[in-house]
Amino acid sequence: MLSLPSARHLHRRLFSSSCVLNDKAGFGSHPGKKSGKRPENHDERFQRILKPSTRQQKDLPFRVELDGIVVQKPTFSRNTAGRLVRFDGTAVARTPPPTPRPPKPASIAFPDLSFEMSTRRKRAPLDDKARAQKRANKLRKVRPDPSSPDDVLYRDILEVLGEDHVDAAIEAKTEFESPFEKMEEAVIEIVKISADGRGLGIAPQEKGKPWAVVVPHVFPGETVRVKCAITHRMYTGADLLEVIKPNPEYRDNSLIQCKYFGECGGCQYQMVPYEKQLAIKRNVVKGAYKLYSYLEPSEIPEVLETIGSPLQYGYRTKLTPHFDLRKNRAPEDPIPPIGYNRLGKPGVLDIEECVIGTKAVNEGLTTRRAEVETNINTYKKGATLLLRESLETTLGLPLSNDLTDEQRTEAVEKKICVSNAKTTVRERVGDVFFEYGANSFFQNNNSVLPPLIEYTRKAIFPEGLANRPTHLIDTYCGAGLFGIALAKEFERVSGVELSADSILAAKRNAQHNNLSADTVSFRAGDASDIFKVVSDFPPEKTAIIIDPPRKGCSDDFVKQVVALAPQTIVYVSCNVHSQARDVGNIIRGMKAKEGGKRYNFESVRGFDLFPQTHHVEGVAVLRLVEA
Ligand SMILES: C[S@@+](CC[C@H](N)C(=O)[O-])C[C@H]1O[C@@H](n2cnc3c(N)ncnc32)[C@H](O)[C@@H]1O
Fold first, then answer.
1. Ligand 1 contact via 483 beta carbon (within 6 Å)
2. Per-residue confidence band for 450, with pLDDT thresholds at 50, 70 and 90
3. What pLDDT is attached to residue 77?
4. Is the pTM here over 0.80, yes or no?
5. Can you tell me which residues form the catalytic site (predicted)?
């Protein structure tokens, strides 16, 4: 704690400050220690007088004059009667004594507020219309962001209900008034799959108004019985009770591999044949470009078939199960469930195996669960467990020719599970070796990365391309996945990434893969910073990879891409809706720019990095052509 100097101390300091003044006259403000061994010299005597002890101060006259220097003593002191006096003896005016505080009452009487409180509570109850209006006002305040999941769902709902009906409901201010009672059961025909993997149905006609019902784990053409759970703008979120009429095109329950499917909020499509899953995802990409790119239909290429994942189960190299702990949990209370959120219900579902996870992360799950169970009383609140697959040894480093066959197999195949966020994870993508922090971003499906990298390579260097790019800008580069995997194809590669840890990993990865820092460089910063440092990249020979987080790119970034006008753009994204928005902006931006060039939207398709779930990775390719 910082201690304040005492009044006496301040007093002395004040006095000694005059020494500093005197120092200007050449007397030295730092007196030497008084030594008993030799007589006091002139300076020391002077200092003693300038910095006397408190006792000496009292005896000193008000003014001291030594060798023509006048030193003034502190101004005030107390006389023998305890009165404050100046050093010249004159009395200081007394400050009036403080007025005494009124005595505290023996007990404080609180005013009786019961009357006011009860009137406040007894406000006239809202009628149904007022309640609906209040709710509508509340919901209106939280308009979803364009291209956010809520907005995407809302656009899907507009499509199934018809924009005219929706406009009429908004006009009549009934857009938040559900025709269903809470917990009402209803039979619904499903007409569409929304981008978040849930089925969309329309309320039966007898309900008298267009209203959507959103149900998990159901598909177009199915008739289902549901329980209405929660009202949102223009739709009711419902729980599935029964599939009355299944659609065999989408539903083959024999495909389900997880015993928790239907209860766990993780996967949506385990009952859907894999080809059909890919088709659903292709439609999601189509819908995204139709709704969010704001391009003319003629400007959007035919969305190509989704490229599947070589592994459809056992592919996920990262799991993050969690558990909650009740406040005031007693040590003898049961172990809480450790797993994932329940589907459509609050709370965590206990899961001891996740079938989309790799063998290594599932082994790690068993170990970590046991550790948590043993140490549960050391946790004050819930936690998220990190489980990441990693190559076991540093033998995973670029394989040396000196390795025995056994070592070589071990280097490529032996996997362990890492659960400490500070540990390094090692991973091989084809022939390329990567290291990154366990807590940092890296794609979670290793099996699909070689085809994804190869696809990107072919997109940049299509057969017969006359003007091959020689420079690559890898934006949002993470640990350098694209830049490093494709580096051999380019004279120069430059990557940018916000996370300093990932950039350190990217630089290390370049070294591990024998890439020189002159050719491949990475820098930490906002993606739009990259344009300052690639001024020596010839735009007509430059390709750029854009792989942003779900929210997509900033306007500033898009503007700078347009200003640079690189020859090829490959935009990879786990959110095809924000991708469609950005691609539309780049194409329009280039059209508006003078210079006689435009971007040809060459291709777009999904990559299935997340089998059994509704997620899809979009890859869009744009190439600069004469306008
Ligand atoms: C989808 S990941 C892609 C990473 C890498 N391309 C890969 O495939 O491993 C997006 C990356 O963008 C980074 N990021 C987020 N916002 C950024 C920004 N404004 N500028 C640069 N990088 C950003 C994140 O840290 C994350 O590593």
1. no
2. very high
3. 57
4. no
5. 574
Distance CA 599, CA 303 (A): 17
Per-residue pLDDT at 27 exceeds 60: no
The two tokens of residue 478 are: 């993470």
- Enter the ipTM: 0.99
Decide which of 3.60.10.10, 2.60.40.10, 2.40.50.140, 1.20.1260.10 is the CATH code for 146-251.
2.40.50.140
Domain boundaries, the chain: 7-86, 146-251, 312-444
Active site residue 574: yes
Q: Kindly state if the Cβ of 477 falls inside 6 Å of ligand 1.
A: yes
How do residues 170-197 score in pLDDT, each as one tens digit?
888 888 889 999 899 999 999 999 999 9
CB-based contact 235:213 (threshold 8 Å): yes
Distance from the CA of 479 to the center of ligand 1, in angstroms? 9
Cβ-contact 571, 283 below 8 angstroms: no
- Do 190 and 224 touch, CB atoms closer than 8 A? yes
Let me know if domain 312-444 sits in CATH 2.40.50.
yes
Same fold flag, 146-251 and 312-444: yes
DSSP codes of every residue in 228-256: EEEEETTEEEEEEEEEEE--TTT--GGG-
Atom of ligand 1 nearest to the CA of 479: 9
Cα separation of 507 and 515, whole Å?
9
Q: What is the number of other CB atoms lying within 10 angstroms of the CB of residue 451? A: 15
- Please write the tens of the pLDDT for every residue from 293-343: 999 999 999 999 999 999 999 999 999 999 999 888 999 999 999 999 999
Q: What are phi and psi of 512, to 5 degrees?
A: -55, -35
How does the average pLDDT of the chain come out, rounded?
Answer: 84
Please give the structure tokens belonging to residue 310. 């070589």
